[in-house]
Amino acid sequence: MAKLAVGVVGVGYLGRFHALIHARHPEVELVGVVDTDAQAARDVAEEAGCAVFEDIDALLEQVEAVSIVVPTTAHLEVARPFLQAGRHVLLEKPIASTVEEGAEIVRLAREAGVVLQIGHLERFNAGVMALAGRIGSPRFIEAHRMSPFVARATDVDVISDLMIHDIDIVLSLIDSEIAHISAAGAAVLTDHLDIANARLEFANGAVANVIASRVSRERMRRIRVFEHQRYQSLDFIEQTLDVAYPQQKEGADWPEIVTERVAIEPVKPLDAEIDAFVRCIREDEPPLVGGEVGLRALEVALQVKEKIEASSNP
Question: Around Cβ 246, how many Cβ atoms within 10 Å?
Fold first, then answer.
């Protein structure tokens, strides 16, 4: 079977990793890269062993699929020609900066009949995949995503940058529509929200409390899911999953809380995400995080932002 011809548009911090992973994938031929920074494109192309293309149109003619890793505001502009030409697209999260643009990207992919996968990387974390396979009917979810400040992705707020990961995971775990959202947040170091807290209440009675910060002293990525007679705690960074449940001891008035660690084989999430993208194209399968899924996560993220802005400007 011939290798899949792939290109990468945008080879900044994350795009460089896309290029290198594609380059070493056994079923992929990395044809080339494009970037508005010509020197960055040359550097990554040399490192990955591929060509540099001057523009999107030149790359489009040579590839079957593409990773698009550009600023969110440019997603529709960059994705449109690839989708219209029938090319498969792995588009970094969030799907777009507005619901309207996200919906247009989904429409274009549907009309073209191609794979559109949105880069919600944490769905390919081994711990998340193990957690998703063990969940029954969550009643309460608590997620913390905290990071020290870094001068990257400061053109967007912490909701689009970090919180949207956990919003997407929560939506995948709770099979119900959102009934109410309340939220609070603040801009601390940038002109955008740097810390935010959202409470998502679902029609089935489940509740999720999601906190994201990019001005914390320490890095934390953790989610806890509470169900009847059990709760599970996942550390995204360590890719460890602990399960706690009550166990009645003979003669005791109250059950003892017993904790067990689930055996998980750690994976590199971006490698797994790109491998899944290639597999969906090869086997004509729908992606785990398709356009509609990415659009729903964006819709909720923007609702959270609107709630915070409304409370800040009564």
Answer: 11
Q: How far apart are CA 121 and CA 208, in angstroms?
A: 20
The count of other CB atoms within 10 Å of the CB of residue 252 is: 9
Q: How far apart are CA 27 and CA 216, in angstroms?
A: 40
Euclidean distance between CA atoms 305 and 193, whole angstroms: 9
Residue 206: what are its φ and ψ, rounded to 5°? Answer: -70, 150
d(CA 213, CA 148): 8
Report the C-alpha gap between 36 and 15 in whole angstroms.
Answer: 12
CA–CA dist 8, 13 (Å, integer): 13
Strand partners, 231: 226, 244
DSSP 5: E
C-alpha angle 8-4-87 in degrees, rounded to nearest 5: 60
Torsion angles phi and psi, residue 57, rounded to 5:
-60, -40
In the chain, what are the domains?
4-120+270-289 (3.40.50.720), 123-265+300-312 (3.30.360.10)
How many whole angstroms separate alpha carbon 280 and alpha carbon 269?
16
∠ CA(283), CA(169), CA(103), 5° rounding?
65
Is the peptide bond preceding residue 148 cis, with omega within 30 degrees of 0? no
239 Ramachandran zone, left/alpha/beta (phi>0; psi -120 to 50): left
Residue-wise pLDDT tens digits, 137-189:
999 999 999 999 887 766 789 999 999 999 999 999 999 999 999 999 999 98
Give tens-digit pLDDT for 223-232.
Answer: 999 999 999 9
